[in-house]
Structure formats: structure tokens, C-alpha cells
Design brief:
This protein is α/β, with parallel strands linked by helices. The chain folds into two domains: 184 residues, 3-Layer(aba) Sandwich (Rossmann fold); 151 residues, 3-Layer(aba) Sandwich (Rossmann fold), CATH 3.40.50. Helix content is 33%, strand content 13%. The N and C termini lie far apart (43 Å). The structure holds phosphoric acid mono(formamide)ester (CP). Phosphoric acid mono(formamide)ester binds next to helix 2.
């Protein structure tokens, strides 16, 4: 539990929230949201990730870029993909990694978030990777840590999940090329509660995507959706017609208050991605999902495991993207080195 006196609030995700992401030279210091970062910075993240991608396919998957650095994973919410790929990314960069088990930490004895942070900070660490159920938690931490520490948001409430969005952009670029202007991207499902969708929409918009569609029942869309620069569809068949990229979202029942859906079966009838429906998209359309997937709720198993699915590639690319963000925020690839991974490969 976050102490009331030091609780992050939505007010922290205000107009100038993203400014603290950049240092005085305009370089990435923290990575908290895709909002407010320009296309040059997002492209630099993707290019840097590209330079790390082949390291993950080598027999020796390690470079010494972050040797001597200490990275702390602070996950106050459950995670499979994000926590493990952050840990792997840090280890492949030769950093020391500390995984704090929140359920067995002093948080369970009532220690406040700030006190926990101060104590870990006293151990001379260099980065906090934070997942928290409160929107604004990562900003709150970035505003309260020592100036030498970088903070990466690994998902805060329904606000943002920027590294997920960037690994999704990386997956799209790998499959469809660098010109996002040619693409029609459809995001389907529980946009209202999805930090992933929010971060994706900002990134897709910044990268000048040709058309961004969101497809969902009215009850699963934010009230301000019309102002997000997207085209809204409530009919799934119309929404995915001629799409190049279809991104399916999980129903986030843990964030839903009250009944927003008739039933999972009816939801699948109306919004589930089946092989039949997929025929409406472009012949070479790719199917994405941030995971975890709920088979038979938002996506049919035949599609999730089928030839158009790049869902597991997204997970693999997550390591390279997180390596990129870690090195950039710690100041190791901001100088224009196009190939930091290969240059410093080690045994
Ligand atoms: N996509 C994602 O954030 O998955 P995890 O919750 O498993 O980290």
C-alpha cells in the first residue's frame, strides 16, 4: 500500500509530466510515457533497439555496456513478460539486477513507497524499473529519487506502459517497414483500462501513422477518445477492414468497476478475433497482443497461434527495446553510436 500522505495522484500526470523525462541536454533521463516525446527520440529508441536485437540471437548474449551499474526491479503488480525481459535486458548489458519481492518486503509491514525507495537508494543503485497499480506512480518516484537515478515506467495503473508501446512499434517496423504513414492500425478491445493502448496511441500518432482505429463497445472507451486522434468504430467487422496491423487487448477485469459487459461469450461474438474475421483485414495483416492473452475471450486460439500472429515476436523484441531504453537513460548510447551492441560485444 502507498501511504496516503505520499500517494501518487493523477495530478502528477499533468501537462508537464513528460518534461522530467529529459535532461538539460534533451537526452532521455527517465522513460515514463511515450506522450510528449518527439518522433526523433522514438526513432532513436527503435534504432538503438535494432542494434541490440542480434545480440539476443547470438550464442553469447552479453555486452559490457552497463557493467558496474545496479538496476532494481520494483514490481508492485503481477507481471510475466515485462519483469523477466527487463531482468534479461539488464543482465545482457552486464548490469547487476536486484528483484525486490514486494509481497515479502517491508511494504507488507506498512513501509511507505518513499521510505522503501530511500532505503534502496542508500544501496547506491542506478535505476528503478517500476510497475505499480496507481497511475502516476512512476512520475512520483522520478520526482523523488536522487538525481543520479533513472526511472523506467513498467506500467502504472491505466496510465502508461511506454516500453510495451515501443516494443510494439519495433514489431510493426520490423514487419511493415519504417514508413508508418502507409499503415492502418486497428486497436481492439478494452481501451478504457489499457495503459498499453494509451501509450501505443501516443507513439503511433508521433510516428505519423496513416490511420489509427480503435474498436470497442462504448463502455470500454475513454470519454475523451474522440480527442485522441483516432477513428472510433463500435462494429468490429467495419473496424478491421483493410487493416495492416490488428492489436488485440485483454479485458482488464481487475480495473473494471461494475458490469461493463454482458458476458465473455457475447463479447467474443461481437469483438473476438477469429480466422473468419481476419479475412477482412489486408492479406498480409499482422496480429499483435501485449499479453497475457485470454483465449476465446478476445482472440481465437487459431489466430493467436496462426501464421499472422507476431505475439511471441513482440516478447522477444521486448528485450532489445528494454536494452535500448536502459542504455539511453543511463547515458550510454545517446551520442549517436549506431551499433553499441556489436561494437562492445564481449564473451
Ligand atoms: N504485456 C505485459 O505487460 O505483460 P506482463 O503483465 O506479463 O508483464
Amino acid at each position: 500500500m502507498v501511504n496516503k500522505a505520499t500517494k501518487p495522484t493523477d495530478a502528477l500526470i499533468g501537462h508537464d509530466a513528460w518534461n522530467i523525462q529529459l535532461d538539460k541536454n534533451g537526452q532521455l533521463k527517465h522513460f515514463l510515457t511515450t506522450e510528449g516525446l518527439g518522433s526523433e527520440m522514438l526513432t532513436r529508441i527503435l534504432d538503438t533497439a535494432e542494434s541490440f536485437a542480434n545480440i539476443n540471437e547470438q550464442s553469447v548474449k552479453k555486452v559490457p555496456l552497463l557493467r558496474g551499474k545496479t538496476i532494481v526491479n520494483l514490481f508492485f503488480e503481477a507481471s510475466t513478460r515485462t519483469r523477466t525481459t527487463f531482468e534479461l535486458a539488464a543482465k545482457r548489458l552486464s548490469a547487476d539486477v536486484l528483484n525486490i519481492n514486494i509481497s515479502t518486503s517491508a511494504t507488507s509491514k506498512g513501509e511507505t513507497l518513499l521510505d522503501t525507495l530511500k532505503n534502496i537508494q542508500a544501496m547506491h543503485c542506478d535505476m528503478f524499473v517500476v510497475r505499480h497499480s496507481d497511475s502516476g506512480a512512476a512520475h512520483f518516484i522520478a520526482n523523488n529519487v536522487a538525481p543520479n537515478i533513472s526511472v523506467i515506467n513498467a506500467g502504472d495503473g491505466s496510465h502508461a506502459h511506454p516500453t510495451q508501446a515501443m516494443l510494439d512499434m519495433f514489431t510493426i517496423r520490423r514487419n511493415k517497414g519504417a514508413d508508418f504513414g502507409k499503415l492502418r492500425v486497428a486497436i481492439v478491445g478494452d481501451v478504457l483500462h489499457s495503459r498499453v493502448a494509451r501509450s501505443q496511441i501516443h507513439a503511433l500518432s508521433t510516428l505519423n501513422t496513416g490511420e489509427i482505429r480503435v474498436i470497442a463497445p462504448k463502455t470500454l472507451l475513454p470519454t475523451d477518445v474522440e480527442g485522441m486522434g483516432v477513428n472510433v468504430f463500435h462494429d468490429m467487422d467495419a473496424g478491421i477492414e483493410d487493416a495492416d496491423v490488428i492489436i488485440m487487448l485483454r479485458l482488464q477485469k481487475e480495473r473494471m468497476q461494475g458490469a461493463r459487459l454482458p458476458s465473455e461469450q457475447e463479447y467474443f461474438q461481437l469483438y473476438g478475433l477469429t480466422e473468419q474475421r481476419l479475412l477482412l483485414a489486408k492479406d498480409d495483416a499482422i496480429v499483435m497482443h501485449p499479453g497475457p492473452i485470454n483465449r476465446g475471450v478476445e482472440i481465437d486460439s487459431n489466430v493467436a497461434d496462426g501464421p499472422r500472429s507476431v505475439i511471441l515476436d513482440q516478447v522477444s523484441y521486448g528485450i532489445a527495446v528494454r536494452m535500448a531504453v536502459m542504455t539511453m537513460t543511463l547515458g550510454h548510447t545517446n551520442t549517436g553510436n549506431k551499433n553499441p551492441g556489436n561494437k562492445e560485444a564481449t564473451e
